[in-house]
Write a structure and sequence with these properties.
The structure holds two protein chains of two kinds.
Chain A lengths: L4 H4 L12 H14 L1 H9 L2 E2 L7 H20 L8 E3 L11 E3 H11 L4 H29 L7 H23 L4 H16 L4 H9 L8 H31 L3 E2 L12 E2 H26 L5 H4 L18 H9 L5 E4 L2 E4 H28 L7 E2 L6 H21 L1 H7 L4 H40 L1 E8 L5 E6 L3 H8 L19 H14 L8 H11 L1
Parallel strand pairs in A: 4-8
Antiparallel strand pairs in A: 1-5, 2-3, 6-7, 9-10
Helix pairs in contact in A: 4-6, 4-11, 5-6, 6-7, 6-11, 7-10, 7-14, 8-9, 13-14, 13-15, 15-17, 16-17
Chain B lengths: L6 H8 L5 H37 L2 H11 L1 H4 L16 H10 L21 H14 L17 H11 L1 H4 L6 E2 L5 E2 L7 H10 L14 H16 L13 H24 L4
Antiparallel strand pairs in B: 1-2
Classes of the chains: A mainly alpha, B mainly alpha.
């Protein structure tokens, strides 16, 4: 149809059958009743930049969907009850053994419900992947500085999601009431009882009396399938809403500014990619779950307070908490006023709490130190924020040492070391490791900045040696192309804050602290290349 | 519906006298004969050896072997030295376990004697065992009827979880002890050696005597271990039966690793 004939033909009132057919009619029907086209137009034109590291949060989202689907299947057959029954299912080594209905129904899911074991394994592997992908996503956010204004609150929401995911994991791990999960609960019980004054009463409240009681599985079940998933869903919705409101960050590159987003629109490209990616993640989880065993409760048997298996560990995401308990030195119990204070528990609890708070509030801490109130939509390359990257490396090392400590016994047996040697080494590394990592990371970042600077100014070494007429040998440096150079020169430079007196002419302690911290943050730096430097280097070469 | 003629009928018409399966069946027959003959030969030699071994096993031979290989540490009269414990009263079971699994003679002093290739022949071990048993009463090598693995698996598994799993791990994968010692994995261990270990308490292991675990209980424990070892893992590859650490490592390296590889592939620009 062309523009000339269109006005000439008046449209008849009777609808003409168009080429769109049913789809067009259906979408029109829906739109006339919901006005959804505005939302689709708005969302469909959202632009998402393309980089592999931007998909990690999506992996977390998709594994959460997988967890919801497989978890729903499991609720059809699981009985959250600690009533004592005799197992009469088909797994011979537990036949006739007394266990809770929770354990017996989990055994039935594993051996007598069609597809049950696969679903259990899908659920558990997807849970491990969920927390792991959140962790990796958070590392990406941290090292690229994506938590800076205006995204500080979204960092907080995301980190709370990480904590909730761990809580989901732990409550789920405790549900089958097998030996391993019972041992895990016993540790939690011990930690709660270690809190002065309220500990014992809190533990009694939690377990409905002395551990293990007959209530805990039912209570954890309510948390696991009702409360925690509901909070997580709401926070995920909020998290995604913020992503839409703030627009996605992007790496620096030619044509990319603080005001635009360069990438693909949601419809059709990004939606298709993301939808396909969901099925790929589902597929990977399925393949793992069908080939590799996870949490074989039939080996562990029902919970019984007396046995503890060698190699008893929590799932990986609780490992850091187990690790810090293992690293606590002995003989820290102090008796004061007829009460025992178990500092072997309180100090680790305090350290973990402090670490969590530091991570949670890091965006605000860094913003205060740098005094940077601008919005940032272009991501930092980690090397260009040397101190932040070094802090991150120190944090990762701290966490990794705790993580390693949770498997101290397996490290000892598999590397033929002594258990005491492993523990003592890790105790030292818990404090020395982050310091070493900090300096190595910072120096590495600065060295990389220097390298970038020299490449931008003088080009890269081409490996081509040329002998000049005078007999001198030189290596030819090839200039980088403009697109590459943009990445090397486009970052910002920060200066340490100056101490300034306030309106009453005083210099407060907070000001001094802030200036000191700012100096620590920005003192060692390689200034980005200025236009003048670039131009002078060009005139030298050409 | 397409017709499905029998394949053999069609083939035999096409290819004259010798069917295509003839070669294969000839080969199979040939292999069967040679294999059978070999098996017959080897069993005949083995059966010829066994009575010889029993007859050769004598206290006198054992004494000579002991003096040549063990006495430097355990003393000429089994009284022990500062390097090794006394062997008076340890019984034939202890010798069969320690020498039969290669733990003795020890290669080097360390936190614990590891199992290694066995250093003596079966009849030499029997001679040593009879010699040590002849000096003082002690636990004997268990009867075959206790080692058949036909006991009550459920009872054995429960006894194992209560008495053994804290060191050997619920799946018998082994575990760490203090000062560089360890509880070994139990997969592939001879039933007689499991029984002897329980009854003699080698190295860091406690003794589970017959009032603690009756011979019938020990038979059940062995049955449970052999059941676990021989039945296929219901959930797929067990990742060494090491529990959540192995699972977490696997997830981070292979699970998340492959997902990250896929994200890189998805966002890669086509050249």
């Amino acid at each position: 149809m062309n523009t000339v004939t269109a006005p000439a033909e008046p449209k008849p009132a009777v609808p003409v059958k168009k080429s769109g057919g049913f789809t067009a009619a259906a979408s029109n029907y829906i739109d006339e009743r919901t006005s959804i086209s505005t939302a689709v137009k708005e969302l469909g034109r959202k632009i998402f930049p393309d980089h592999w590291s931007f998909l990690l949060g999506e992996v977390a989202l998709y594994s959460f969907v997988i967890i919801l689907l497989s978890g729903t299947f499991l609720t059809f057959f699981f009985q959250a009850s600690m009533a004592e029954v005799h197992y009469e299912g088909s797994y011979v080594p537990l036949k006739g053994i007394e266990m809770s209905a929770a354990m017996a129904s989990t055994m039935d899911i594993s051996f007598d419900v069609r597809g049950g074991l696969l679903m259990r394994q899908v659920h558990h592997w997807a849970a491990l992947l969920f927390v792991a992908s959140i962790g990796l996503h958070m590392l990406r956010i941290f090292f690229t500085g994506a938590f800076r204004k205006p995204r500080e609150l979204n960092w907080v929401i995301g980190f709370i999601l990480f904590i909730l995911a761990m809580a989901e994991g732990f409550t789920g791990y405790s549900l089958p009431d097998d030996l391993l999960s019972g041992n895990g609960l016993r540790i939690i019980d011990g930690m709660v009882k270690g809190i002065p004054l309220i500990g014992t009463w809190t533990s009694f409240l939690l377990f409905g009396g002395e551990f293990p009681g007959t209530d805990i599985v039912g209570r954890l079940y309510s948390l696991h399938i009702l409360l925690l998933p509901a909070i997580i869903l709401v926070l995920i919705a909020l998290h995604l809403l913020f992503v839409v409101v703030h627009k996605h960050t992007q790496y620096s590159g030619p044509g990319r500014t603080q005001q635009n987003v360069v990438g693909y629109p949601v419809l059709p490209v990004y939606a298709a990619k993301a939808g396909g990616f969901f099925f790929i993640v589902f597929g990977v989880v399925m393949v793992i779950a069908s080939l590799f065993s996870i949490n074989p409760i039939w080996n562990y048997g029902p919970y019984d307070p007396s046995p503890v298996s060698a190699g008893t560990q929590p799932d990986w995401y609780i490992g850091f908490a187990d690790g810090i308990l293992r690293l606590a030195p002995p003989h820290l119990d102090v008796v004061l006023f007829d009460h025992t204070f178990s500092f072997g528990i309180l100090i680790p609890l305090g350290l973990v709490g402090l670490f969590i708070m530091l991570v949670l509030f890091y965006p605000f801490i860094e913003a205060w130190i740098t005094g940077d109130k601008r919005e940032h939509h272009i991501l930092d390359r980690p090397r260009n924020a040397a101190t932040r990257t070094a802090i991150g490396a120190a944090g990762v090392t701290f966490y990794a040492v705790l993580w390693a400590a949770a498997s101290s016994d397996l490290i000892a047996t598999h590397f033929k070391l002594t258990m005491e040697g492993v523990i003592h080494t890790l105790q030292v590394m818990l404090f020395a490791g982050p310091v070493i990592a900090y300096f190595i990371a910072k120096r590495t970042c600065l060295a990389l900045q220097k390298k970038d600077r020299s490449i931008a100014l003088h080009g890269y070494e081409s490996g081509r040696i040329v002998r000049l007429p005078g007999g001198e040998y030189i290596e030819v440096h090839e200039p980088v192309d403009d697109f590459e150079r943009w990445k090397l020169v486009s970052h910002e430079s920060y200066q340490p804050l100056m101490i300034r007196p306030d309106s009453r002419g005083r210099i407060t302690v907070a000001q001094r602290v802030r200036a000191g911290l700012s100096r620590w943050f920005f003192e060692d730096r390689i200034d980005p290349i200025t236009r003048a430097e670039l131009e002078s280097s060009h005139s030298n070469h050409h | 519906m397409p017709r499905t003629p029998s394949p053999s009928a069609g083939k035999s018409r096409k290819q004259g006298r010798r069917g295509p399966l003839a070669t294969i069946s000839l080969l199979a027959v040939g292999l069967l004969f040679t294999g059978g003959a070999y098996a017959a030969f080897s069993t005949s030699t083995a059966s010829a050896e066994t009575p010889a071994a029993v007859s050769a096993a004598s206290v006198e031979d054992g004494k000579k072997l002991f003096q040549a290989n063990c006495a430097s540490c355990h003393g000429l009269a089994l009284e022990g030295t500062e390097n090794a414990p006394s062997l008076i009263g340890v019984g034939a079971a202890a010798v069969d376990f320690q020498v039969g699994t290669g733990r003795m003679p020890m290669q080097a002093h360390g936190p614990q004697a590891p199992d290694k290739p066995v250093q003596f022949t079966e009849d030499q071990i029997q001679s040593l065992a009879q010699y040590v048993a002849s000096t003082a009463p002690g636990p004997a090598i268990p009867d075959e009827s206790l080692l058949d693995g036909e006991g009550d698996v459920a009872n054995g598994a429960e006894l194992f979880r209560i008495n053994c799993a804290m060191c050997h791990n619920v799946a018998g994968a082994g575990g760490a002890l203090t000062e560089g010692k360890w509880a070994p994995g139990l997969s592939g261990v001879d039933p007689a050696h499991i029984y002897e270990a329980m009854v003699t308490g080698p190295q860091n292991m406690p003794v589970f005597n017959d009032t603690n675990l009756t011979p019938e209980d020990k038979r059940d424990v062995i049955s449970a271990l052999k059941f676990m070892e021989n039945s296929p893992a219901p959930g797929g590859n067990q990742l060494g039966s090491l529990g959540p650490v192995a699972e977490g490592l696997f997830l981070w390296i292979f699970g998340l690793g492959s997902i990250v590889a896929i994200t890189v592939w998805i966002t890669a620009r086509s050249n």
